[in-house]
């Protein structure tokens, strides 16, 4: 009986993770234009389909461009703007509707699904320990450590991609965290551990002082743990697309995190879809800053070369070269 219950819980959570990832990915792909990719995913130069002027300096194209120290902070306003443009576009209506339907469907079963998970947490020492370890995957200190590890390796090995991953991890953590905190303070949903009614009470726009004094009574929706974990995973997966193991392993850990959050009474299952979607979209947009120019080079003849990141709907990424005469 216990094995069946665990299987149902894990299967349900994994379905949420993959469904939200698919929904968010579909929305993002509808808002991109196919652009020429002049570098492969490892930033190795490939043949340029342009007739370049003799002597034009394009050495800059052969370098991986690392982030500046302030990029992780200065780009956050732009991240919010791009996120807003993406979510309010007409192409995103089916995605937003699907996300809402998934959340509402989970709300209908929140009380029973939480109780079954909580009972298992109390009765099974193994599941109890599993849940406690899983929740640490959403700890902000872990994600800060991941960023530090990438930064340290990038500095030691002079690896621009690792430095970029570190910077974007911090940027995604901050952008996602700010958004989640705003939504928590608007929704004011009770967490399961202190719920006064089935599926938790919603106390919209609680007083900031009241919120700070008793956060579990207001912070359930959406899940900040799972949103920051998803953002970090997405940034890493986007920067290392040829490491095919990252996504399946990462999504498995995200599913385990979701189960742990419910088991410990921190969140309902319906708190997870929006958290996953926020982390995925912020991670995806931050790791692919196509609107920001990386570099530009001009020669004395008035030719200007601009280099910007590029990715196509099939998931490829690279650099777009624009030549203005």
Describe the structure.
The chain is mostly helical and 325 residues long. It has one domain: Vanadium-containing Chloroperoxidase, domain 1 (Up-down Bundle). It has helices at 2-30, 71-74, 76-87, 93-108, 110-123, 125-135, 140-157, 160-187, 208-213, 224-239, 246-263, 272-287; strands at residues 295-298, 304-311, 317-324. It has a three-stranded antiparallel β-sheet, with no helix packed on it. A hairpin with a 5-residue loop joins strand 2 and strand 3. Helix 1 crosses helix 12, helix 7 runs antiparallel to helix 8 and helix 8 packs antiparallel against helix 12 (272-287). The radius of gyration is 22 Å and the shape is globular. It starts with a helix and ends with a strand. The model is unreliable at 29-64, 291-308, 310-319 and 321-325 (pLDDT under 50).
Radius of gyration: 22 Å
Distance between the termini: 72 Å
The description of the largest β-sheet is: 3 strands, antiparallel
Strand content: 5-15%
User: Structural class given helices, strands, pairing?
Assistant: mainly alpha
Shape: globular
Which CATH-level-2 architecture? Up-down Bundle
**SS elements, strand count:** 3
What's the helical proportion of residues? Answer: 55-70%
Strand and helix order: HHHHHHHHHHHHEEE
Text of the CATH class: Mainly Alpha
What is the average of the pLDDT values? Answer: 78
């Amino acid at each position: 009986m216990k094995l069946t219950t665990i299987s149902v819980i894990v299967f349900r959570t994994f379905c949420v993770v993959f469904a939200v990832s698919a929904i968010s990915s579909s929305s993002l792909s509808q808002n991109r234009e196919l652009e020429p990719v002049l570098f492969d995913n490892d930033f190795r130069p490939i043949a340029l389909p342009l007739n370049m002027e003799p002597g034009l300096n394009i050495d800059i194209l052969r370098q991986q461009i690392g982030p500046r120290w302030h990029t992780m902070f200065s780009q956050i306003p732009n991240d919010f703007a791009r996120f807003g443009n993406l979510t309010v576009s007409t192409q995103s209506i089916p995605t937003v509707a699907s996300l809402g339907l998934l959340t509402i469907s989970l709300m209908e079963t929140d009380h029973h699904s939480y109780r079954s998970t909580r009972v298992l947490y109390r009765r099974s020492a193994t599941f109890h320990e599993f849940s406690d370890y899983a929740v640490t995957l959403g700890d902000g200190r872990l994600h800060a450590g991941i960023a530090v590890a990438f930064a340290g390796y990038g500095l030691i090995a002079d690896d621009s991609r690792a430095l970029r991953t570190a910077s974007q991890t911090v940027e995604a953590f901050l952008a996602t965290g700010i958004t989640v905190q705003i939504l928590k303070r608007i929704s004011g949903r009770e967490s399961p551990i202190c719920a006064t009614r089935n599926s938790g009470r919603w106390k919209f726009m609680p007083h900031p002082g009241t919120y700070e004094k008793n956060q579990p009574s207001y912070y359930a929706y959406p899940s900040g743990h799972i949103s920051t974990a998803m953002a970090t995973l997405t940034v890493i997966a986007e920067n290392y697309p040829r490491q095919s193991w990252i996504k399946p392993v990462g999504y498995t850990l995200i599913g385990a995190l979701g189960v742990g959050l419910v088991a410990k009474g921190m969140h309902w299952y319906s708190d997870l879809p929006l958290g996953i979607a926020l982390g995925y979209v912020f991670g995806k947009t931050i790791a692919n800053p196509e609107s920001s120019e990386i570099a530009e080079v001009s020669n004395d003849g008035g030719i200007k070369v601009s280099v910007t990141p590029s990715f196509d709907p099939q998931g490829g990424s690279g650099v777009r070269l624009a030549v203005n005469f």
